[in-house]
Amino acid sequence: xxxxxxxxxxxxxxxxxxxxxxxxxxxxxxxxxxxxxxxxxxxxxxxxxxxxxxxxxxxxxxxxxxxxxxxxxxxxxxxxxxxxxxxxxxxxxxxxxxxxxxxxxxxxxxxxxxxxxxxxxxxxxxxxxxxxxxxxxxxxxxxxxxxxxxxxxxxxxxxxxxxxxxxxxxxxxxxxxxxxxxxxxxxxxxxxxxxxxxxxxxxxxxxxxxxxxxxxxxxxxxxxxxxxxxxxxxxxxxxxxxxxxxxxxxxxxxxxxxxxxxxxxxxxxxxxxxxxxxxxxxxxxxxxxxxxxxxxxxxxxxxxxxxxxxxxxxxxxxxxxxxxxxxxxxxxxxxxxxxxxxxxxxxxxxxxxxxxxx
Length: 358
Ligand code: SAH
Ligand code: SF4
Prior knowledge:
By secondary structure, the chain is α/β, with parallel strands linked by helices. The chain has helices spanning 10-19, 26-35, 50-59, 149-163, 182-193, 213-220, 237-243, 252-266, 284-294, 319-331; strands at residues 66-72, 78-83, 89-96, 119-122, 126-128, 143-146, 169-172, 205-209, 227-231, 270-276, 299-305, 336-338. The strands form 2 sheets. It has a 10-stranded mixed sheet, with helices on one face. The longest helix has 15 residues, at 149-163. Mean pLDDT is 89; it is low at 104-108. Bound molecules: S-adenosyl-L-homocysteine (SAH) and iron/sulfur cluster. The site of S-adenosyl-L-homocysteine has 18 residues, from strand 8 and strand 10.
């Protein structure tokens, strides 16, 4: 894949325009169009000379992501099917006024205006996913390809434009395993975070991984305060192997070590996602194993109700069980909350994105 013009800094842009015989200050104009105005074509760059635009169209084509379908839920969230330049399809969801964001509650910062609802975007990192988790609609698709950084950022831009507001939180919880597309995902979230780009605070950008340990070690070394969520779903090795077969090579003790490292390096609370499946991972013994796994680390457990997917034999745990778990975790000194899934009526919940047309 060729380099995208959106991934270049001011210096590199200046070199390009200079190469076309133009003054270096044009780089600043270009940068503004690309990252502040997020234009999707060079023709929108009205203060850039036509001759330069024509050269750029030729040598540095812009990727175009188009919303081909948009479903609105009765709770205000919207699911989008986005078609990429090569015709591949991904889904992303915009969720309004969630309490905090989908990871764990964080205080609002000064960039966030308390008087207006907040917009959280759940974005995809891959077309499909190679991990094949038993309960996941994306997993049954297999991996088609990685998304580029542009394509990841485009999802945020498309949804922000559609809601007509700034995006407050981003969760990489759509299709795909972010740490299997590490470089593009990091480049994308850096651009979202940049003041010259979308200006979303690092503490409001969360990557959710199924538990790819080398990704966790790398992520711990990134200088920004991005947040980490890990899909655990069971602290019992055999159960986890059944649910997430491709992760059996990265057993729980290895995962726990990686999380301890992250905790030490970053000192940031890790979100542990635990989707509750009746009769599979919701027994008292499983709860004791979860408490054991979490003990001694700064974590926040997010209990997710399972969203039934077509043809699946899994059932969500009872509300009573989920609330009991939340209470018992808290009593054991482990902060826990229940995620209320938005967009049920549009099958818009994160992790339930199949990317199929129609
Ligand atoms: N691949 C990453 C991120 C995408 S999945 C990961 O697995 O963490 C985002 C979250 O949705 C994960 O916690 C995933 O386990 C969960 N999920 C997948 N299918 C789901 C379903 N049918 N109902 C509820 N959550 C689901
Ligand atoms: Fe991939 Fe995450 Fe779905 Fe597992 S849960 S198949 S890792 S998207």
